[in-house]
Amino acid sequence: MLERISEAVARAVNADWAYILMPVGKDDEQLVVAARYGWWGRRWTQDNHPSRRVAIDAGELSLIRHAILRRHAVLVNEPGDYEQFECLHEAFARPQSGPALIQPITRQERTLGVVVLGRVDLSPREDGRLSRQFTDADAQLCQALMAHMAAAIHNAQLYRASVEQSEQAAELVRQRDSETMRLRSILDSITDGVVLVAGTGEVALANAAAERILNVPRQHLLGRIITPLYAELLRDGDCQPGDEALFEWDGKLLKSCLAPVRQPDGTLLGDVVVFRELVSEERAGQPRAEYDSAVSHELQDLLSSARADTRLLAESAVE
Hints:
- This protein is α+β, with helices and mostly antiparallel strands.
- It is 39% helix and 26% strand.
- It folds into 2 domains: 2-159, Beta-Lactamase (2-Layer Sandwich), CATH 3.30.450; 178-317, 2-Layer Sandwich (Beta-Lactamase).
- Strands 1, 2, 3, 4, 5, 6 and 7 form a 7-stranded antiparallel β-sheet that branches. Strands 9-8-12-11-10 form a 5-stranded antiparallel β-sheet.
- Helix 1 (2-12) packs antiparallel against helix 4 (136-189) and helix 4 runs antiparallel to helix 8 (288-317).
- The chain is rod-shaped, with a radius of gyration of 35 Å.
C-alpha cells in the first residue's frame, strides 16, 4: 500500500522521486524508509525487502526534523539544502539532486511519518536555482492528499501492530508448549512419585511414577483431593520445606516430603509432593535406620529438583 501511495503523491505533484519515512516504534528520532518511488520507474517497500532496512537519524536531517516537529510542509528549493537527502539516495544507489518537498503524515495530532518528494533538474536558472522548484500550491496539494491517505496508513499500522503482537504471542505459546513438554518428559523419567497440589488441595499435575505407585490412572488423579499425601505434613499447620511424613496407601507404606512452588513474584502456585514406597529391611539389604536415612537424603535432593522443574508446569496447570 505504501509504495502505491508514494507513487500516487509523486505523480500528483510531478515529482521524480518519493520516500515515505516511518518512526521506529515510538521514537521520532529514528526513521526507517518504509517505501519509495523513483523516476527510474520502480516502486519499493520495506515489506517486500525485509532484509534491506534503511534507517536514518532524524537529528541529522534538520529539515525533516523541522517538518515533523512543526507538523507543517517544508519547501526545499535552496541548492545548499539538497545534500541533506544524499544519505537516502546513496542507500539505494540512486545519486540525484534537486528541489524537495517534505510533508508530515499526521492524524489526530499524531505524526505517523513523513513523505519526502523531489525533482531532478540539471538545468539551472540564471540565479543558480533549478527551474523545477516546488511551490506553495504543490505543498497544499500534497497536504490534502496525505490528509486523505493518513487514515489508511494509520489503519495499516494498527493492522501490522496487531499481526506482530499475534505472532509474538503465538511464538511465546510455542516456546511455552515446548518447554512444558520437555519438563513433563523430565518428570516422567523420575522413578519417584511427583504430584503438584493446587491451593485448593486438588492434584493439578502428576508424573508416571505417581500413577504407578498410587495405582490410580493419571486422569483420575487430576482434580482429585488426595489428603493422605500431605495431611500428615500439614498436621500442625506449620509445614516447613523438606519436612517428611509416612503414610499408608493401598497396603503400601510411603514416605513423602513437600515444598511450596511459587512464581518469581512470590505468589504461591501450590505444593509439590515427592514420595516413594518403602520396601522391607530384607529387600533393602541394610539396617532400617540406614535405609530411612538414604531415602530421606534422596527425597530431599529430588524435591529440590522437582520443585524447580514443576514451577513452569504449575503456572499453566493451576491457572
